[in-house]
Amino acid sequence: MSQAEATAALASIDASRIESVQRIKHGLTNESWLIRTVAGSYVVRLSNTSEESLQINRASEARILEAVAAAGIGPEVVRCDPSAHLLITRYAGKTWEPAQAFEPQNIDRIADLLWRLHSLRPPDDIHVVDLHSVVRGYLRTLDERGAAVTAGTKELRERALQIAATLQSDANTSLCHNDVHALNILDGGTLRLIDWEYAGLGQRLFDLASICVYHAYRREQRERLLRRYAVRYEDDLWNRLELCCWLFDYVRDLWTAVRELQ
């Protein structure tokens, strides 16, 4: 049995109804396949067990997926079984090309999508994204693995922890995705987000920071995103977004360093 056939079997898809199987993602935390059948197309994701050090909570992800699917913000879930490391969603088309994230009208659409997400009532018993704990957790993993040098100087570490504590002092938290970029955005006329493995109850502006950092938005693009998103634009809000962008960039570097140790 090929790996593709094994994947289909694990997903309980009748092999006689399969038209094609295509690997669409292969990474250190999961592997995804696009399976086209006579009844429709599905994305099957198989995750591995190297998730704890990357701070992934699959049980929380399952609850969040149910909520965002019902709200039309996430993919339609066909089957989600964290114990089997299995997720099946209905295929909803291609993700954005990176260039699409720079189009002014799409920046507005991203802002509107994030406003909708942050306005949702969070599901019960989901992962709380404590930025200070996230930074400390990654630093601890790097220290324990003898890779502390990748986290930068002592001053850089201290600055990251200080910024995380400052941002965490804001009690205004919401359901957040925390990994917003073009390849996680589906556009079928209405935008949806995929890959919710880092989602949780967290800081709203961290979601805005993720798209800003991933796509290296210039100041005018960041301002457009924030002005569209915010009910009232204030200098303090801009300053917090800049702090979030700095911290997101640092956390992304830590995450990459931890991932490379797997």
TrEMBL record:
Keyword annotations from UniProtKB, A to Z: Kinase, Transferase
PANTHER family referenced in this protein's UniProt entry, alphabetically: CHOLINE/ETHANOALAMINE KINASE, ETHANOLAMINE KINASE
Stored InterPro entries: Aminoglycoside_PTrfase, Kinase-like_dom_sf
Domain Aminoglycoside phosphotransferase: 21-242
GO biological process entries: phosphatidylethanolamine biosynthetic process
Cellular component GO terms, alphabetical: cytoplasm
Keyword Transferase annotated: yes
The name this protein goes by in its record: Thiamine kinase
Record flagged with keyword Transferase: yes
GO MF terms held by the record: ethanolamine kinase activity
Pfam family, one: APH
Highest taxon of the lineage: Bacteria
